[in-house]
Specification:
The protein is mainly α. It has 21 helices and two strands. It has a two-stranded antiparallel ribbon with strand order 1-2. It comes from Streptacidiphilus jeojiensis. This is MDR family MFS transporter. It is found in: Cell membrane.
């Protein structure tokens, strides 16, 4: 429990950052005049954390977890400080990319250390505590992020910049606690470091994620997109060849994919990551842009999702520890995620009552809680104890890979379609008597807050039409209801398409999880298993020596 306290603080940093930014990103993007560029800040962070994750896992298997966990915290805090100095969305994306280099080690190394010291059957209970911390920070993140983003200045610094500064004191505490209490026994294993594996996996992943994010803007068959396809595929092929040649020293040893549970769970992690971030990104956008909630209020309104995830993750851990069974949880969880996304697609309109939306959020959160921790447990239980770090990091890597692709694709779909959806909504609304009456009423049309709509109607070619909302959406809340409705309807219609895509991804995840074999949980920890394997090897060597003599 002493070690666990240090791990929980480190994980709190990673989990808090993911959620604290989600409710503040709209305010940040509006202030930096780049709402449609917000995908870069999330994608850059996820790309670097995704690529760094397997490297942390492999290096920690070789040299021990503690130095790399401390390094991850230090890099993360330094990146957080850098983010506060951003003056544009591109600068912020660059600083978030550096921050992601640290984030890549926080979650995966914490879970690997738990795997080292706790047997799989009991591990679910302890991982339940860790994921409860993740869920708790997910509750606090939107609240704190919303509150900070809602302040114009705090101590002379713009409120949203404190979203990143708040990581600094927490990170300092984490450094002190981890340095003092994290003393896990480790047997050093000398291997070559697979730097070429890291280079080629970056060469394969980054271009494919870039085209996923920019494909709608560039054109899916444009020269830049085709170049990304070619470079990405070549990078993936080169990575596979490098990993085969490196053998056990590889970043992700290819022999692990010979384990059916590992390979199937890796694909499932990609799908769950895509679906998870699709929902987690869209819901705050809906609450703030469509429902007009402040960042702080949208954080409060996200509570059902977070509470559902927290309670489900704790219950899953307790039930797994008691029964030793775990496959049923991701089966139910992925099914609930499909249902929740379909409900958001069909039932949630721009004028849907908030209470109904919050019920759907609760369902979404329960589905995540039932699914997330079980995937990591399944991978850790299926591989040899000596591969605990690389297997845990691989599970996190594939989930992050899916999350990065999902973020890029879903936000690209949203912002490439929202302009047309808003224009369609305006065309329909302009024919109604209420809209014409408001437009011809000088008292309404003359209001300063309504001028963006009046200018858009009078000069459609120069105003950019519905696309003008992509740089700054804050003016929507200043409009009279009759003028604001088409904007809100356009955003809601674009989000429907994203939720439908997310539901399709989760259907694939549900089908795949049905075919994953449930391996009985081991009753010894990773360290105990390695000690037993070493003792058996020594006995075998001694017996062979005795026979020879």
């Amino acid at each position: 429990m002493t070690i666990l306290s240090g791990l929980m603080i480190g994980m709190f940093l990673a989990a808090l950052d993911q959620t604290i930014v989600s409710t503040a990103i709209r305010t940040i993007a509006d202030d930096l005049h780049g709402l449609s560029q917000q995908a870069w800040t999330t994608t850059a962070y996820l790309i670097t954390s995704t690529i760094a994750t397997p490297l942390y896992g492999k290096l920690s298997d070789m040299h021990g977890r503690k130095p790399y966990f401390l390094a991850a915290i230090s890099i993360f805090v330094t990146g957080s400080i850098a983010c506060t100095f951003a003056t544009s969305m591109i600068e912020l994306a660059a600083f978030r990319a550096f921050q992601g280099l640290g984030a890549g080690g926080l979650m995966s190394l914490a879970l690997a250390i738990i795997g080292d010291i706790v047997p799989p059957r009991e591990r679910a209970r302890y991982q339940g505590y860790i994921l409860a911390v993740f869920a708790t920070s997910s509750v606090l993140g939107p609240l704190v992020g919303g509150f900070l983003a809602g302040q114009s200045t705090i101590l002379g610094i713009a409120g949203w910049r404190w979203v990143f500064l708040v990581n600094v004191p927490i990170g300092m505490v984490a450094l002190v606690v981890v340095a003092k209490v994290l003393n896990v026994p480790h047997t050093r294993r000398n291997h070559r470091i697979d730097w070429w594996g890291a280079v080629t996996i970056a060469l394969g992943v980054v271009p494919l994620l870039l085209v996923a994010e920019q494909g709608q803007t560039w054109g899916w068959l444009s020269g830049r997109s085709l170049a990304c396809y070619v470079i990405g595929v070549a990078g993936v092929v080169a990575w596979i060849l490098v990993e085969r040649r490196m053998g056990d020293a590889a970043l992700i040893p290819m022999r692990l994919f010979g384990n059916k549970v590992f390979s199937q769970t890796s694909v499932l992690s990609v799908l769950v990551g895509m679906g998870m971030f699709g929902g987690m990104l869209m819901i705050p956008q809906y609450l703030q842009i469509v429902k007009g909630a402040s960042p702080t209020k949208s954080g409060l309104l996200m509570l059902p999702l977070m509470l559902g995830m927290m309670s489900a993750s704790i219950a899953t851990g307790q039930l797994t520890a008691r029964t030793g069974r775990y496959k049923i949880f991701p089966v139910i969880g992925t099914a609930l995620l499909v249902v929740a996304m379909l409900l958001f697609h069909f039932e949630v309109q721009w004028n849907t009552p908030l209470m109904e939306t919050m019920v759907f959020m609760l369902l979404f959160g329960i589905g995540l809680g039932l699914t997330m921790q079980t995937l990591t447990l399944s991978v850790q239980n299926a591989v040899p104890a000596k591969d605990m770090g690389v297997a845990t990091a691989s599970s996190t890597f594939f989930r992050q890979l899916g999350a990065t692709a999902g973020t890029a694709i879903f936000l690209s779909v949203l912002f490439s379609t929202v302009g047309d959806k808003i224009n369609d909504a305006f065309t329909a609304a302009a024919k109604t008597p209420q809209f014409q009456q408001a437009l011809n009423n000088p008292a309404v049309a003359g209001k300063a807050g309504n001028q963006p709509v009046v200018q858009m109607i009078q000069h459609p070619s120069s105003s950019g039409g519905g696309a003008s909302v992509l740089s700054d959406s804050s003016f929507i809340q200043k409009l009279d209801d009759v003028f604001a409705a088409p904007f809100k309807q356009g955003f809601a219609d674009s989000m429907h398409l994203v939720f439908l895509l997310g539901a399709g991804v989760m259907v694939l995840a549900f089908v795949l999880v049905l075919f994953i074999k449930e391996v009985p949980l081991r009753s010894v920890s990773g360290i105990q298993a390695q000690a037993q394997a070493a003792a058996a090897a020594m006995e075998k060597a001694a017996a062979k020596e005795a026979d020879a003599s």
